[in-house]
Amino acid sequence: MVKCDKCGVETFMPYRCTYCGSYFCDEHRLPELHNCSGNFRQPRNNVFIGSYSTSSNPYGSSYTSSRVIRPYWFSRQELKDLALGLSVIIISPLIRLWDYLFIEPLIVIAALLILTSAFILHELAHKFAAQRLGLWAEFRISASGMMLTLLSFLLVQTSIFPVMFVAPGAVMIAGMLRWDEYGKVSVVGPATNITQALIFFIIFLITSNYTIAELAIYGMAVNSGLALFNLIPFGIFDGMKIFKWSKLAWLILVILAGLMFGFIWF
């Protein structure tokens, strides 16, 4: 547990500010919300888009700020963190499936690709949605997130949890957002996983191949489970931000993910 340098609240998954280096809870993670001493308003070699102003923002005051954007851009640090996160996700199940790799290599590789796509597309959806709004957005590894991922892998092996949770890090975002923007950036992650689960559901319905059907069920389990996990309306999860923005959107996503997950296990 780490105390937020702004309010002193202890948090299980603290955010480290890219600009001032201090640690904060989810409520104060953005530079504007903890009176950041760093130069967070300095453009980062992006392309200037224009100015943005509003009198109805979640912080209760009006402001005008210049927004810059360079969509689909990755820093070296971000690529390193993504590579490390993917390594944790791939290596953990591969240890258990190592013997099967030489017996059914294509099935093992397909399962790992399903797990990888569930993670990477979720995070890239958050990143690109934020960048399109002119915000700084980069994936960063989280020590507590990596521990949670490894712990869930161990629990899967003991049949305590039905699916492995994939959360070795998260997309860090800096810049002013309205609550509707905050909600939209948050909603695309779980929505991406639900879309993948629906695609695997269609594949399951139309295929006559047993192996493909099993892989489709695995894809549904991973993506619907990851969506439900992120839709928890508490703390740092996407679900909290979505719930504050639109309870209807949150409910629809929970129902869709729940139906996919329930189809597999019940």
Structure description:
- This protein is 55% helix and 13% strand.
- The chain has 266 residues and is an alpha+beta fold.
- It has one domain (71-265).
- The protein is globular and about 60 Å long.
- The chain starts with a strand and ends with a helix.
- Residues 42-69 have low confidence and may be disordered.
Strand content: 5-15%
How many strand units? 8
Order of helices and strands: EEEEEEHHEHEHHHH
With helices defined by DSSP (H or I, 4 residues minimum), what is the helix count?
7
Structural class by helix and strand composition: alpha+beta
- Please report the distance between the alpha carbons of the first and last residues: 36 Å
The general outline is globular
Round the mean pLDDT to the nearest integer and report it.
78
The side-by-side strand order for the widest beta sheet comes to 1-2
Characterize the largest beta sheet: strand count, sense, and whether it forms a barrel: 2 strands, antiparallel
Helix content: 40-55%
The total domain count is: 1
Low-confidence stretches: 42-69
Radius of gyration: 20 Å
